[in-house]
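Annex B. Sample input.
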Amino acid sequence: MDGAKTSARMARQRFLAVLAAVGLSLTVLAGSISTASAQGWWPWANDGPPRPREPVHRGPPPAPVPPPNALPPPGAQPQRGAGSSGSNICLQLEQRLVSEGQRGGQTRSQLPKLEDDIRQNERSLAQTQNTLERGDCYETFLFVKSLRQTPTCRNAAGQLESLKRRVGELNAQRQQMLGTGERSHQDEIIRELARNGCGNQYVQEARRRDNGSGSPFGGWQTEDDGPKTENKFGNLPFATYRTVCVRLCDGYFFPVSFSTLPNHFARDSDVCSSRCAAPAELYYHQNPGADMRQAVSAKAQTPYTSLRTAFKYTKELVQGCSCKEAEYLPPAGEKKAEGPGTSGATVSASPAQRGPALR
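Annex B, continued. Sample output.
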């Protein structure tokens, strides 16, 4: 009896010991699982434990590439000559401005012919109206005036309506030339020239066109804004010009540029000096709309007509006055740089041999 009790007690002790061992194992396992979960790594996984990574330094993102031929944003203010891109922008804008001026000049040159057509059609309109009145082509009934349906009256009435339409179309074309034809893209181009620092004259003209609105280059008037300053390309301080090289000894001249801007006068002056052995000076006048009688010296700002030798080449032959190195004779007291093959004084070409080319 006692032996049976002892065996049962020992069995319970062994069972409790096993339970305690199992509980301890479960506790340790649970702690390992929570630690592995926090670290993101399992002991039986193929990968090793995570290693700390060094920070990667990335540079700023690249600037967006502008589309081809795109103008700079309004806030950009590059200085002219500071870089090739700024100079290129100014050159492109000036070329566009020259094109606008040439287009406006062509439009104005067509205006006299258009006005003559309007006058002729108005005369024909008045004559046709008189024909209808004298031909008794109208009858009145109860204060209503109606056309008599005779062949002659119907033909005259048809001509009258055609002339009215034609006069209306011509007047509309004239208004377009005087109004919207003059208001081309010049304001926009001038504004961009001013913003890109292409010259003080563009800034001044942009402010003038701003008409005192107080905003820099931003107050251009629209068609509904009421009275506005007349916008003619020929009146601009930087209108297109023709530059000519004037030979000072006899007033003879030859063209350098047919359509240019004051910003390019220095370049044209160098061209003038390089093309003539005799003393020469650059002159300019507006083109279209002027000729040598309105030409002005680019250096001294004096008119060509005030030159002592103005148009002298048309009246007499000045000996030794030539753009050719071999034929030019400097005035007395001045030395001529002679090269090999030159032998001092030579006789210049006869008037019959002179032409529009350098001489």
